[in-house]
Write a structure and sequence with these properties.
Layout: E1 6-16, E2 21-32, E3 37-41, H1 48-55, E4 64-73, E5 76-77, H2 83-89, E6 94-97, H3 101-104, H4 111-122, H5 128-141, H6 147-150, H7 160-171, E7 178-182, H8 190-207, E8 210-215, H9 218-224, E9 227-232, E10 235-241, H10 242-247, H11 252-259, H12 301-305, E11 310-314, E12 317-320, H13 324-336
Parallel strand pairs: 3-8, 3-9, 6-7, 7-8
Antiparallel strand pairs: 1-2, 1-4, 4-5, 9-10, 10-12, 11-12
Helix pairs in contact: 4-5, 5-7, 7-8, 11-13
Protein backbone atom coordinates (compact mmCIF):
# COMPACT_ATOMS: atom_id res chain seq x y z
CA UNK A 1 0.00 0.00 0.00
CA UNK A 2 1.27 3.50 -0.86
CA UNK A 3 2.58 5.52 2.09
CA UNK A 4 0.76 8.85 2.60
CA UNK A 5 2.71 11.96 1.64
CA UNK A 6 0.89 13.80 4.43
CA UNK A 7 -0.85 12.19 7.39
CA UNK A 8 -2.67 14.40 9.88
CA UNK A 9 -3.89 12.83 13.13
CA UNK A 10 -6.17 14.39 15.79
CA UNK A 11 -5.25 18.02 15.06
CA UNK A 12 -6.71 20.50 17.56
CA UNK A 13 -6.22 24.26 17.22
CA UNK A 14 -7.70 27.01 19.37
CA UNK A 15 -7.54 30.82 19.40
CA UNK A 16 -7.38 32.57 22.76
CA UNK A 17 -8.21 36.16 23.66
CA UNK A 18 -8.81 37.94 26.94
CA UNK A 19 -12.49 37.07 27.06
CA UNK A 20 -12.97 33.85 25.09
CA UNK A 21 -11.47 30.76 23.50
CA UNK A 22 -12.40 29.64 19.99
CA UNK A 23 -11.90 25.94 19.27
CA UNK A 24 -11.33 26.31 15.54
CA UNK A 25 -10.18 22.75 14.79
CA UNK A 26 -11.38 19.81 16.89
CA UNK A 27 -9.68 16.49 16.25
CA UNK A 28 -9.18 16.54 12.48
CA UNK A 29 -7.52 13.56 10.78
CA UNK A 30 -6.91 13.00 7.06
CA UNK A 31 -4.31 11.73 4.61
CA UNK A 32 -2.96 12.91 1.26
CA UNK A 33 -1.25 10.39 -1.02
CA UNK A 34 1.38 11.25 -3.65
CA UNK A 35 -0.10 12.70 -6.83
CA UNK A 36 -3.72 12.84 -5.68
CA UNK A 37 -6.03 15.81 -5.18
CA UNK A 38 -7.94 16.05 -1.90
CA UNK A 39 -10.76 18.59 -1.59
CA UNK A 40 -11.60 20.06 1.83
CA UNK A 41 -15.06 21.64 1.68
CA UNK A 42 -17.38 23.38 4.10
CA UNK A 43 -18.99 26.67 5.03
CA UNK A 44 -16.96 29.75 5.92
CA UNK A 45 -15.68 29.37 9.48
CA UNK A 46 -15.73 25.57 9.43
CA UNK A 47 -11.96 25.37 10.02
CA UNK A 48 -10.74 24.48 6.53
CA UNK A 49 -8.02 27.09 6.16
CA UNK A 50 -6.88 27.00 9.79
CA UNK A 51 -6.47 23.23 9.55
CA UNK A 52 -4.01 23.40 6.67
CA UNK A 53 -2.16 26.63 7.46
CA UNK A 54 -1.53 25.55 11.05
CA UNK A 55 0.50 22.63 9.70
CA UNK A 56 2.95 25.09 8.13
CA UNK A 57 3.19 27.52 11.04
CA UNK A 58 1.19 30.12 9.12
CA UNK A 59 -1.34 30.96 11.83
CA UNK A 60 -0.17 33.61 14.33
CA UNK A 61 0.80 32.29 17.76
CA UNK A 62 -0.52 33.86 19.91
CA UNK A 63 -3.52 33.93 19.63
CA UNK A 64 -3.43 30.49 17.94
CA UNK A 65 -2.36 27.43 19.89
CA UNK A 66 -2.02 23.85 18.69
CA UNK A 67 -3.28 21.71 21.56
CA UNK A 68 -2.60 18.27 20.11
CA UNK A 69 -2.02 16.23 16.99
CA UNK A 70 0.71 15.36 14.55
CA UNK A 71 1.24 16.02 10.84
CA UNK A 72 3.66 13.62 9.22
CA UNK A 73 5.06 14.92 5.93
CA UNK A 74 7.37 12.30 4.45
CA UNK A 75 7.76 10.92 7.95
CA UNK A 76 8.62 14.27 9.62
CA UNK A 77 6.17 15.78 12.07
CA UNK A 78 5.60 19.34 10.83
CA UNK A 79 4.14 20.35 14.19
CA UNK A 80 7.43 19.55 15.97
CA UNK A 81 9.66 21.59 13.63
CA UNK A 82 11.09 24.98 14.59
CA UNK A 83 10.62 28.13 12.51
CA UNK A 84 13.88 27.65 10.56
CA UNK A 85 13.03 24.06 9.63
CA UNK A 86 9.54 25.06 8.49
CA UNK A 87 10.95 27.87 6.31
CA UNK A 88 13.13 25.30 4.53
CA UNK A 89 9.99 23.29 3.68
CA UNK A 90 7.58 26.11 2.81
CA UNK A 91 7.89 27.15 -0.82
CA UNK A 92 10.08 24.18 -1.64
CA UNK A 93 8.47 20.88 -0.62
CA UNK A 94 5.11 22.42 0.30
CA UNK A 95 3.73 25.49 -1.48
CA UNK A 96 0.56 27.53 -0.99
CA UNK A 97 -1.67 29.41 -3.44
CA UNK A 98 -3.59 31.90 -1.30
CA UNK A 99 -7.11 33.21 -1.80
CA UNK A 100 -6.26 36.86 -2.49
CA UNK A 101 -3.13 37.34 -4.61
CA UNK A 102 -3.23 41.13 -4.17
CA UNK A 103 -2.48 40.74 -0.46
CA UNK A 104 -0.05 37.86 -1.05
CA UNK A 105 2.15 39.69 -3.55
CA UNK A 106 4.33 42.58 -2.38
CA UNK A 107 2.86 45.69 -4.07
CA UNK A 108 6.19 47.56 -4.30
CA UNK A 109 8.28 44.75 -5.82
CA UNK A 110 7.99 43.72 -9.45
CA UNK A 111 6.28 40.38 -10.06
CA UNK A 112 9.30 38.89 -11.80
CA UNK A 113 11.58 39.82 -8.92
CA UNK A 114 9.23 38.12 -6.47
CA UNK A 115 9.31 34.98 -8.59
CA UNK A 116 13.09 35.15 -8.82
CA UNK A 117 13.34 35.52 -5.05
CA UNK A 118 11.17 32.43 -4.54
CA UNK A 119 13.66 30.48 -6.65
CA UNK A 120 16.75 32.04 -5.11
CA UNK A 121 15.61 31.35 -1.52
CA UNK A 122 15.89 27.61 -2.04
CA UNK A 123 18.75 27.54 -4.58
CA UNK A 124 21.16 30.36 -3.75
CA UNK A 125 24.10 28.71 -5.45
CA UNK A 126 22.53 29.07 -8.92
CA UNK A 127 23.37 32.10 -11.08
CA UNK A 128 20.87 34.95 -10.92
CA UNK A 129 20.37 34.97 -14.70
CA UNK A 130 19.24 31.34 -14.54
CA UNK A 131 16.63 32.27 -11.93
CA UNK A 132 15.44 35.16 -14.10
CA UNK A 133 15.05 32.91 -17.15
CA UNK A 134 13.19 30.34 -15.06
CA UNK A 135 10.85 33.05 -13.71
CA UNK A 136 9.95 34.13 -17.24
CA UNK A 137 9.46 30.50 -18.20
CA UNK A 138 7.08 30.04 -15.24
CA UNK A 139 5.03 33.09 -16.23
CA UNK A 140 4.68 31.65 -19.72
CA UNK A 141 3.79 28.23 -18.32
CA UNK A 142 0.81 29.60 -16.39
CA UNK A 143 -0.44 31.57 -19.38
CA UNK A 144 0.65 35.12 -18.58
CA UNK A 145 0.91 36.90 -21.97
CA UNK A 146 4.18 38.60 -22.93
CA UNK A 147 6.03 37.13 -19.93
CA UNK A 148 9.29 39.04 -20.62
CA UNK A 149 7.43 42.35 -20.34
CA UNK A 150 5.22 41.24 -17.47
CA UNK A 151 8.32 40.21 -15.52
CA UNK A 152 9.09 43.91 -15.02
CA UNK A 153 5.56 44.96 -13.97
CA UNK A 154 4.13 45.48 -10.51
CA UNK A 155 1.16 43.49 -9.11
CA UNK A 156 -1.26 46.39 -9.60
CA UNK A 157 -0.52 46.25 -13.33
CA UNK A 158 -1.83 42.67 -13.48
CA UNK A 159 -5.52 41.79 -13.64
CA UNK A 160 -6.98 39.63 -10.86
CA UNK A 161 -6.74 36.51 -12.99
CA UNK A 162 -3.15 37.23 -13.98
CA UNK A 163 -2.17 37.88 -10.35
CA UNK A 164 -3.55 34.47 -9.41
CA UNK A 165 -1.61 32.92 -12.31
CA UNK A 166 1.53 34.61 -10.99
CA UNK A 167 0.83 33.14 -7.53
CA UNK A 168 0.49 29.67 -9.06
CA UNK A 169 3.79 30.21 -10.90
CA UNK A 170 5.44 31.16 -7.62
CA UNK A 171 3.95 28.12 -5.87
CA UNK A 172 5.29 25.63 -8.43
CA UNK A 173 8.64 27.39 -8.92
CA UNK A 174 10.57 24.85 -6.84
CA UNK A 175 8.53 21.81 -7.95
CA UNK A 176 6.83 21.14 -4.60
CA UNK A 177 5.66 17.70 -3.56
CA UNK A 178 2.49 19.15 -2.00
CA UNK A 179 0.51 22.09 -3.38
CA UNK A 180 -2.11 23.73 -1.16
CA UNK A 181 -4.70 25.91 -2.92
CA UNK A 182 -6.77 27.97 -0.48
CA UNK A 183 -9.94 29.17 -2.25
CA UNK A 184 -7.87 29.97 -5.36
CA UNK A 185 -10.80 31.16 -7.52
CA UNK A 186 -13.10 32.87 -5.00
CA UNK A 187 -12.32 36.49 -5.93
CA UNK A 188 -12.58 35.89 -9.70
CA UNK A 189 -15.49 35.94 -12.13
CA UNK A 190 -16.77 32.65 -13.50
CA UNK A 191 -14.89 32.71 -16.80
CA UNK A 192 -11.56 33.55 -15.14
CA UNK A 193 -12.25 30.93 -12.45
CA UNK A 194 -12.35 28.21 -15.10
CA UNK A 195 -9.13 29.45 -16.67
CA UNK A 196 -7.29 29.61 -13.34
CA UNK A 197 -8.52 26.14 -12.41
CA UNK A 198 -7.16 24.82 -15.72
CA UNK A 199 -3.83 26.50 -14.99
CA UNK A 200 -3.76 25.03 -11.48
CA UNK A 201 -4.37 21.51 -12.78
CA UNK A 202 -1.77 21.98 -15.52
CA UNK A 203 0.71 23.13 -12.87
CA UNK A 204 -0.09 20.06 -10.79
CA UNK A 205 0.56 17.85 -13.82
CA UNK A 206 3.80 19.72 -14.54
CA UNK A 207 5.20 19.13 -11.05
CA UNK A 208 3.46 15.85 -10.16
CA UNK A 209 2.51 17.41 -6.83
CA UNK A 210 -0.23 16.14 -4.59
CA UNK A 211 -2.83 18.88 -4.08
CA UNK A 212 -5.09 19.98 -1.24
CA UNK A 213 -7.90 22.17 -2.56
CA UNK A 214 -9.68 24.21 0.12
CA UNK A 215 -13.04 25.53 -1.07
CA UNK A 216 -16.73 25.97 -0.33
CA UNK A 217 -17.53 25.22 -3.98
CA UNK A 218 -18.70 21.62 -4.41
CA UNK A 219 -18.82 22.07 -8.18
CA UNK A 220 -15.13 22.91 -8.20
CA UNK A 221 -14.31 19.85 -6.11
CA UNK A 222 -16.37 17.62 -8.41
CA UNK A 223 -14.19 18.64 -11.37
CA UNK A 224 -10.76 17.98 -9.92
CA UNK A 225 -10.71 16.02 -6.65
CA UNK A 226 -9.99 12.35 -6.11
CA UNK A 227 -11.13 12.34 -2.48
CA UNK A 228 -13.15 14.79 -0.38
CA UNK A 229 -13.25 15.75 3.30
CA UNK A 230 -16.36 17.66 4.38
CA UNK A 231 -15.81 19.94 7.39
CA UNK A 232 -18.37 21.34 9.79
CA UNK A 233 -17.80 23.11 13.10
CA UNK A 234 -14.08 22.38 13.16
CA UNK A 235 -14.49 18.65 12.45
CA UNK A 236 -14.44 16.39 9.42
CA UNK A 237 -17.98 14.99 9.34
CA UNK A 238 -17.61 12.91 6.19
CA UNK A 239 -14.79 11.79 3.94
CA UNK A 240 -14.53 9.49 0.94
CA UNK A 241 -13.86 9.33 -2.77
CA UNK A 242 -15.52 11.80 -5.10
CA UNK A 243 -18.01 9.07 -6.04
CA UNK A 244 -18.78 8.35 -2.36
CA UNK A 245 -19.51 11.98 -1.55
CA UNK A 246 -21.54 12.86 -4.65
CA UNK A 247 -23.31 9.55 -5.30
CA UNK A 248 -23.53 8.03 -1.80
CA UNK A 249 -23.52 10.92 0.73
CA UNK A 250 -24.04 9.62 4.26
CA UNK A 251 -24.03 12.65 6.57
CA UNK A 252 -27.04 15.02 6.78
CA UNK A 253 -24.79 18.04 6.31
CA UNK A 254 -23.22 16.69 3.10
CA UNK A 255 -26.68 15.74 1.86
CA UNK A 256 -27.96 19.25 2.57
CA UNK A 257 -25.05 20.82 0.69
CA UNK A 258 -25.67 18.64 -2.35
CA UNK A 259 -29.42 19.23 -2.25
CA UNK A 260 -28.81 22.99 -2.30
CA UNK A 261 -26.97 22.80 -5.65
CA UNK A 262 -28.97 23.68 -8.78
CA UNK A 263 -28.97 21.16 -11.62
CA UNK A 264 -29.41 21.64 -15.36
CA UNK A 265 -30.51 18.03 -15.79
CA UNK A 266 -33.95 16.52 -15.28
CA UNK A 267 -37.05 18.31 -14.09
CA UNK A 268 -36.85 21.46 -12.05
CA UNK A 269 -36.89 20.98 -8.30
CA UNK A 270 -37.01 23.25 -5.32
CA UNK A 271 -33.56 23.73 -3.81
CA UNK A 272 -33.01 22.74 -0.21
CA UNK A 273 -31.88 25.25 2.38
CA UNK A 274 -30.09 24.01 5.51
CA UNK A 275 -31.91 25.68 8.41
CA UNK A 276 -30.23 27.57 11.25
CA UNK A 277 -26.68 28.82 11.65
CA UNK A 278 -23.25 27.19 12.02
CA UNK A 279 -22.27 26.43 15.63
CA UNK A 280 -20.42 28.88 17.83
CA UNK A 281 -16.90 27.58 18.30
CA UNK A 282 -16.29 29.60 21.46
CA UNK A 283 -18.63 27.44 23.57
CA UNK A 284 -18.64 23.77 24.46
CA UNK A 285 -21.75 21.79 23.57
CA UNK A 286 -22.68 18.19 24.19
CA UNK A 287 -23.73 15.86 21.45
CA UNK A 288 -23.55 16.36 17.71
CA UNK A 289 -22.62 19.88 16.61
CA UNK A 290 -24.93 19.61 13.58
CA UNK A 291 -27.94 18.48 15.63
CA UNK A 292 -29.78 21.88 15.78
CA UNK A 293 -29.83 22.00 11.96
CA UNK A 294 -30.31 18.29 11.26
CA UNK A 295 -33.43 16.91 9.59
CA UNK A 296 -32.80 13.47 11.11
CA UNK A 297 -31.51 13.83 14.66
CA UNK A 298 -32.56 17.27 15.88
CA UNK A 299 -35.03 15.83 18.42
CA UNK A 300 -33.23 12.61 19.34
CA UNK A 301 -31.69 12.22 22.82
CA UNK A 302 -28.62 10.33 21.55
CA UNK A 303 -27.71 13.19 19.19
CA UNK A 304 -28.14 15.72 22.01
CA UNK A 305 -26.07 13.79 24.55
CA UNK A 306 -23.29 12.02 22.66
CA UNK A 307 -20.95 13.25 19.94
CA UNK A 308 -20.81 10.72 17.10
CA UNK A 309 -17.64 9.04 15.89
CA UNK A 310 -16.73 8.49 12.25
CA UNK A 311 -18.66 5.38 11.19
CA UNK A 312 -17.38 3.20 8.35
CA UNK A 313 -19.81 3.41 5.42
CA UNK A 314 -17.60 1.68 2.87
CA UNK A 315 -13.95 1.24 2.00
CA UNK A 316 -12.36 4.63 2.67
CA UNK A 317 -15.80 6.19 3.22
CA UNK A 318 -16.68 7.43 6.72
CA UNK A 319 -19.39 9.65 8.13
CA UNK A 320 -19.73 11.18 11.60
CA UNK A 321 -23.39 10.40 12.29
CA UNK A 322 -25.29 8.16 14.73
CA UNK A 323 -27.89 7.33 12.08
CA UNK A 324 -25.91 6.73 8.90
CA UNK A 325 -28.42 4.19 7.51
CA UNK A 326 -31.28 6.67 7.90
CA UNK A 327 -29.17 9.44 6.37
CA UNK A 328 -28.54 7.32 3.28
CA UNK A 329 -32.29 6.72 2.87
CA UNK A 330 -33.01 10.40 3.44
CA UNK A 331 -30.37 11.30 0.84
CA UNK A 332 -32.13 9.21 -1.78
CA UNK A 333 -35.38 11.05 -1.11
CA UNK A 334 -33.85 14.50 -0.71
CA UNK A 335 -31.64 14.41 -3.79
CA UNK A 336 -34.45 12.97 -5.90
CA UNK A 337 -36.97 15.61 -4.81
CA UNK A 338 -35.86 18.22 -2.24
CA UNK A 339 -39.39 19.59 -2.01
CA UNK A 340 -40.97 16.27 -1.08
CA UNK A 341 -43.09 15.90 2.02
CA UNK A 342 -40.60 13.48 3.57
CA UNK A 343 -37.95 16.16 3.84
CA UNK A 344 -39.13 19.59 2.75
CA UNK A 345 -37.23 22.72 3.64
CA UNK A 346 -37.98 23.71 7.19
Amino acid sequence: MTTPLLQVDDLRVRFESDDRTVNAVNGVSFTVFPGETVGIVGESGSGKTVTVLSLLGLVPSPPARIDSGRALFEGRDLLSLDAHELRSIRGKDVAVVFQDPMTSLNPVIKVGEQLREALWTHARQIDDNVHRARAIELLALVGVPQPERRYHQYPHEFSGGMRQRAMIAMAIANRPKLLIADEPTTALDVTIQAQVLDVLMAAKAETGAATVLITHDLGLVAQVADRVAVMYGGRIVEQGTIEDIFLRPSHPYTIGLLASLPSIEGRQRRLYSIPGQPPRLDSESEGCSFRPRCAIGSDRPLCAQEAPNLHVVGEGHRAECHYVAEAVTWAAERLRDPGSATGGAR
